[in-house]
Amino acid sequence: MAARLVEKHCHNVPGKLRVTELFFDVPVDYQKPNDGRLRLFARSVTRWNNPIDSSTKEDTKLPWLVYLQGGPGFGCGPPQNYGFVEPALSKGYQILFLDQRGTGLSSTVTAGTLARQGDAIKQAEYLKKFRADSIVRDCEAIREILTQEYPADQRVWSIIGQSFGGFCAASYLSFSRTFQKVIERNEAYYAKFPEDVARVRLIMQHLEANRTPLPSGWLTPARFQQLGIMMGFHGGLDSLHDLVLRAWHDLEIFGEFTDPTLALIDGHGGMDKNIIYAVLHEAIYCQNESSSWTADRLRNEIPRFQINAGDSVSPIYFTGEMIFKDMFDSYTELSRIKDAAEILARTKEWNTLYNVDQLRNNKVPVYSATYIDDMYVHFDLASETAAKIGGLKHFITNTMYHDALRSKSGEVMRQLFSLRDDCID
């Protein structure tokens, strides 16, 4: 087997849940299995029962449901923190939460750990092994271990993928429009908070004139503009307004930002703690071509995203989840891998991630939730992808945003299981 189970510990948590912590060893490069190993971490969760009749045997070979976290670059939280756990367990699954390679406790990639690989060229080569194709191979290697005692016809599992996890799922089975959706969210924001047009411009003027340190780097005008990533979540417009209000109030009263405000702003960055998100964000889409800082090029072509453009009454638009080259200057941790990021942005030699013919002929049941107003995954692109996957059933709604699996877990799971369990007349 390509993977090896290294360690396993079980414990119970409130909610009648049985959580097992698992560590696996897998190859860094499946094409060169002797060239180094990674340590992967996962948690499984099942229903914990304490029957009156102790002789009652529990079914230990429940079907697996694997959760692939969004990102890239983010690990999983404890299973009890996810709203979809209860409905999934009720359907008879046991669930595996995998920290994808480089995230969480799975051989975490930071600027410090990456430096151990050597110079920027070696760092870039190492990071190339952290895309969806390698994550899929990790999943398969772990599946072989966890199902080795199952009957041959039951050694399969189901996958639930959120955002980037969904990209991994599509890979398993086998940007200009994104800016447009961000423009729509900006229009909704300023329609709700028109007073913030002047406030945001005042904040930007202050940041242009004053070098402002943060615990993780520097608060530049571009970095403040990047707080727009919040607009894609449920309640995101209000959360962004709260930060704008606080920052503007500080300038009005004190002429500078207070430490509590700067701490809040710094907490909404996160790039220094999840560098894979920044360094591989565009690379996760690449197949035989380079990204060449696509988001930078598109931002420069759209006047509404120019901080210095327009008259004094025009709103400055926030950006979304895009990654820009200047982030590798405004975040201390990212600045340490700036050269490796540049190499990856220029790289054209990427493996193929998706087999379109295989997806078209897919026989594995697929159930998808797509949100019309998703700011991170454009609805048209999601629909085009769904149309290429054979046998896919689609739940489409305009009442949810990108984080619905977390913020509206019960409704999402109910709709997906309805696609599986019910029929349309």
From TrEMBL:
Residue ranges of every copy of the AB hydrolase-1 domain listed in the record: 63-174
GO biological process: antibiotic biosynthetic process; monocarboxylic acid biosynthetic process; proteolysis
Keyword list, A-Z: Hydrolase
Entry's Gene Ontology molecular function annotations: peptidase activity
Keyword Hydrolase: yes
Pfam family name, one: Abhydrolase_1
Listed InterPro entries: AB_hydrolase_1, AB_hydrolase_fold, Peptidase_S33, Serine_prot/Carboxylest_S33
Gene3D superfamilies hit by this protein: alpha/beta hydrolase
PANTHER family referenced in this protein's UniProt entry, alphabetically: 2-SUCCINYL-6-HYDROXY-2,4-CYCLOHEXADIENE-1-CARBOXYLATE SYNTHASE, PROLYL AMINOPEPTIDASE
Family from the record: Belongs to the peptidase S33 family.
Protein name: Proline iminopeptidase
Organism of origin: Penicillium diatomitis
